[in-house]
Design a protein that fits this description.
Elements: H1 4-10, E1 26-32, E2 35-42, H2 47-62, E3 69-76, E4 89-91, E5 97-99, E6 121-128, H3 136-149, E7 154-158, H4 166-169, E8 178-179, E9 182-183, E10 186-188, E11 191-195, H5 196-199, H6 210-222, E12 229-235, H7 242-250, E13 255-260, H8 264-279, E14 284-295, E15 302-303, H9 310-318, E16 322-328, H10 330-337, H11 342-345, H12 350-368
Bound molecules: adenosine-5'-triphosphate.
Length: about 375
């Protein structure tokens, strides 16, 4: 079996766009059996040149004795330059970037024929939001746990390559092992979890651009040993950019769940997310209003901070189901921040009951839904 040193040696004589040795740009090496997963940190403003370097690195690593398959992905270098990130990425409040809708002339990612790694999964659900920070990852995690609590075998894929949340939400730090040539997901509360955060150094900011993101997502979809699952919950990055399109096009989604807060701006973006899924003909399972109202932990009083009910109203207007609401609640935040989402940590709490109810609705919708959407290419 090749070692990390062999991988670095394979990169000797190769240089990045700035003329620096490629070995110095390695931000993560994950080796097991004959497979090498390597990440390179590059300058996001030089995507094309880095893409060439990535290809060269992949070829060199693949030629290393003991390596049969090499997968090299690009992350952004750790530099904290003041200039704006890549043109189609927008800096996000907590330091990572999110892609937005491809502009005119952007090439949509190519459709892939069925992804074998996903074939034994009964239902694949995308949890999406139009806007960052609305609680999409918290909802994905608790929804996945809620589905597992009803006896389903559940996987959770953190597709937010810009700011992976699942390592933090589940307090997971280990690196995935390779089993049968595929990455084995980590596990928490019986749910299988995979995140780009497990594969690269957590300090490497992931400011990626379109083609790299699509490629990384394809790998995350195709190279993970999910095994047989009743449901795979995909925590999407916020927005309606390349990753969302890649997934919507490549994955036979059983449905999408859209998370929004009741605020007008979040709702406008949520509408955009709904219409993106409708455009690729992925069924919308429904909308969840998160941080819908505030329950005071001291007096039990209810305050509707963001004019609660906007998401229900919008869902009705768009003709998609409204699944329910989750309160803005300190226990939901504390359990998530402590690495153990509320449905796992306190399954009998009223806060967990909210998600268990939402999960039960999603499960019923999936089981009674007639068709499963096929992947579809949308141009323009
Ligand atoms: N219902 C809730 N009550 C209290 N806190 C919440 C709730 N939902 C989410 N949060 C908190 O809000 C913050 C953002 O949530 P989360 O990371 O789930 O959002 P996101 O939409 O996935 O964000 P990102 O844009 O980073 O992907 C977290 O600190 C989380 O614990």
């Amino acid at each position: 079996m090749a070692t990390e040193a062999d991988i670095l040696k394979a990169l000797e004589g190769l240089y990045g766009p700035g003329g620096a040795p490629l070995a110095g740009a390695v931000s993560g090496v994950n080796l097991s059996g004959a497979k090498a997963f390597v990440s390179l940190a590059g300058d996001p403003s030089q995507t094309q040149a880095w893409e060439a370097a990535r290809g060269a690195a992949e070829r060199a690593i693949k030629a290393t004795p003991g390596v049969e398959q090499a997968i090299v992905t690009l992350t952004a270098e750790r530099a904290s330059r003041p200039e704006a990130p890549a043109p189609r990425a927008q800096a996000h409040a907590h330091g990572h970037a999110h892609a937005h809708a491809p502009g005119p002339g952007a090439t949509p990612p190519q459709q892939k024929a069925g992804i074998p790694a996903l074939e034994k999964i009964r239902f694949i659900i995308a949890v999406a939001s139009g806007k960052g920070g609305v609680g999409k990852s918290t909802t994905s995690a608790n929804l996945a746990l809620g589905l597992a609590a009803q006896g389903w075998r559940v996987g959770l894929l953190d597709a937010d390559v810009y700011g992976p949340s699942m390592p933090r939400l589940f307090g997971l730090t280990g690196k995935p092992k390779v089993e049968g040539g595929k990455l084995a997901p980590l596990e928490a509360y019986g749910v299988k979890i995979m995140s780009m955060g497990f594969l690269v150094d957590e300090n490497v900011p992931m400011v990626w651009r379109g083609p790299m993101v699509s490629q990384a997502i394809s790998q995350m979809l195709g190279e993970v040993a999910w095994g047989e699952l009743d449901a795979l919950v995909i925590d999407m990055p916020p927005g309606t950019g390349d990753v969302q399109l890649t997934i919507a096009q490549q994955v036979p989604l059983a449905g999408a769940v859209i998370v929004s807060t009741p605020q007008d701006l979040a709702l406008i973006d949520a509408r955009r997310a709904v219409s993106m899924f409708q455009k690729v003909e992925a069924p919308i399972l429904g909308v969840i209003e998160n941080m819908s109202y505030f329950l005071c932990p001291h007096c039990g009083g209810r305050s509707e901070i963001f004019a609660h009910g906007g998401a229900r109203h919008d869902a009705e207007q768009m003709g998609v189901p409204f699944l329910g609401e989750a309160p803005l609640d300190i226990k939901i935040r504390q359990t998530s921040d402590a690495g153990s989402p509320v449905v796992g940590a306190e399954p009998d709490s009223p806060q967990a009951a909210v998600y268990l109810n939402l999960a039960a609705k999603v499960k019923t919708l999936l089981e009674t839904q007639k068709t499963r959407a096929a992947p579809k290419i949308v141009v323009g």
